[in-house]
Amino acid sequence: MAQQKMLKFVNVERDMPQKRVPDLRKKDYDEIYQEFAAVKAEEQASRCSQCGVPFCQTHCPLHNNIPDWLRLTAEGRLEEAYEISQATNTFPEICGRICPQDRLCEGNCVIEQSGHGTVTIGSVEKYITDTAWEKGWVKAAKPFAERDESVGIIGAGPAGLAAADMLRRQGVQVTVYDRYDRAGGLLTYGIPGFKLEKDVVMRRNKLLSDGGVEFVLNTNIGVDISFADLRAKHDAILIGTGVYKSRDLGGPGAGNNGIVKAIDYLTASNRLNFGDTVPEIESGELSATGKKVVVIGGGDTAMDCVRTAIRQGAISVKCLYRRDQKNMPGSQRETQNAIEEGVEFVWLSAPKGFTGEGDVSGVVVSKMRLGAPDASGRQSPEEIPGADYTEDADLVIKALGFSPEELPTLWDTPELEVTRWGTVKADFQTHATSMDGVFAAGDIVRGASLVVWAIRDGREAADSILDYLNNASAVAAE
Ligand code: FAD
Ligand code: SF4
Ligand code: SF4
C-alpha cells in the first residue's frame, strides 16, 4: 500500500522557518526568516488534513487552492504545486512573506482550531514560488495573440501590477504610470526589506517588462499628464493609486522639527537601501541614528518604523499606543519580532503635545484605560486624569494611518464619484467607477488595506476591463 503522505499533524509539530537571531538581524535589512529546506517544506505541508471544506481557502482573499498545493509539495511535485499556486495569485512569494496569515488562511486552519498548531501555509507558499524562480519555471507573459486595445494603469502597486499581468497575458497593450522612479508601490517604498527583500519585487517588475508591460515612471498623473489626456490615449483606465495622505496630530508643539511622517521616514530608508542618495537621511532629518525615537501608532506601519529605527542605530525606540497589546491593529507576529529586537512598547498611552523650542525634545503622554466597548465591539480608550508625563524624544514618527488624496480635485474630474472618506466609489464586483471605461482597485477603493486584497481587486478589475473591451469591439463590429 502506498505510504500516506498527508495528515501528519498528529505526529509532526508545527515548525516555522528559523528566524535569524535578533543581534544579527538588527545589523541589516535582510529578511529575518531563513528558507525552508526541501525536506522541511515537504514535512510541514504533509501536516495538512486535506479538509473537504478547507476554511484556509475560504479565508484567503484569493481563494488559493491551498490543500492541493500542500499535497503536491508533500509529494515532492513542486512544479505542479507552483502551477496551481500561480493560477490564483499573481505574487505568491510576496503574499507568503507578508500576508498576516494569523488573521487569514492560517488563523482559520482546522488543525489550529483543534489545538495542533496551524499548517504553515504562508511559508510553504513562499517556498514553492522561490523554488519556481530558482528553477526557471516563472515565465513572462507570452500572449497567444496581440490585441489592438490599450489600457492605462495609474499606480504600479500590487493592484495595478496584478491587473497589468492579467491583461498583458490576454494580449492587451498595457502602460503603467507611476510618480515614483521604481515600480512596486508600497512593496518597493513602504514595506522594509526585513519583511520583503527588494530583489523579490524588482524581479517581478522585470518579468512584467519582459512580458511587454510598458512602464512610464516619474510621471504624476494630474501634474505631468492630465487625466483627460490619459483617458483619450487609452481604451480603458484603471486607477490603482493607493492612499498616501498621512493622518496628522495636533496639540502644542506639533510643528516642531523632528516630528515626521511614517511614509516619508520609511521611503527614505528604502531609498537608501537601494543605494540612492537621500539628502534627508544625510542631514539627519529622516534618520534615527543616535536618537531617542518615539513612534506613535499600533499598526503595521508603526511596527515597520520601530524596527527600521533599531536598524538605523537609535539610542532607544519606544512605541506609544493608546490601547493595549490585545487590541492593537498590527500583527502580533511583527510585534513579537519588534520586542525581540529591542523595541519598548508603552501601551495605553496617547500623545497630547510635544515639548521643545524649535526642535522636539519630548512627547507629552496621557495615560489611558480601556472603557466600554464601542459599536464595533472594541473597547474605547479613556484618559486617566492627572497621569500625564513626558517621554524624551528627539525623533517622533507619526504612524497613524492614511487617507486618500482628493482625486476629483487633483485630476479635475468632478464626475469621478468618491465616498465620504474620499475613496473612489467602484462597483464591488466589476470595479467600474462612475466614469465610463474607468475602473479602480486596491487601497484607493478600500482605504488602507492589505497586499493580498489589492492583488485580488487588480485581478478582478482586469477581468471586467476585458469584458468592457470585448463589448466595445463587438459594438464597433456591428
Ligand atoms: P500602493 O501599493 O500604494 O501603490 C500605489 C501606487 O500609485 C504608488 O506607487 C504611487 O506612487 C502611485 N500613484 C499614486 N498617485 C499617483 C498619481 N497621481 N500618478 C502616478 N502614480 C500615482 N500589507 C500587507 O498585506 N502586509 C504587510 O506587511 C503590509 N505592510 C505595510 C507596511 C506599510 C509601511 C504600509 C504603508 C502598508 C503596508 N501594507 C501591508 C499595506 C499594503 O502595502 C497596501 O495595502 C497595498 O500596497 C495597496 O496596494 P495598491 O496597489 O492599492 O497601492
Ligand atoms: Fe494565506 Fe495570503 Fe497565501 Fe492566501 S495569499 S494563502 S491569505 S498567505
Ligand atoms: Fe489543510 Fe488546514 Fe487547509 Fe484543512 S484548513 S486543508 S488542514 S491547511
From TrEMBL:
Residues 151-458 form the FAD/NAD(P)-binding domain. The keyword Cytoplasm does not apply. This is Dihydropyrimidine dehydrogenase subunit A. It comes from the Bacteria. InterPro entries: DPD_II, FAD/NAD-bd_sf, FAD/NAD-binding_dom, GltD-like, Helical_ferredxn. Residues 25-136 form the Dihydroprymidine dehydrogenase domain. Keywords: 4Fe-4S, Iron, Iron-sulfur, Metal-binding, Oxidoreductase. Gene3D superfamilies: Alpha-helical ferredoxin, FAD/NAD(P)-binding domain. Transmembrane segments: none annotated. It comes from Paramylibacter ulvae.
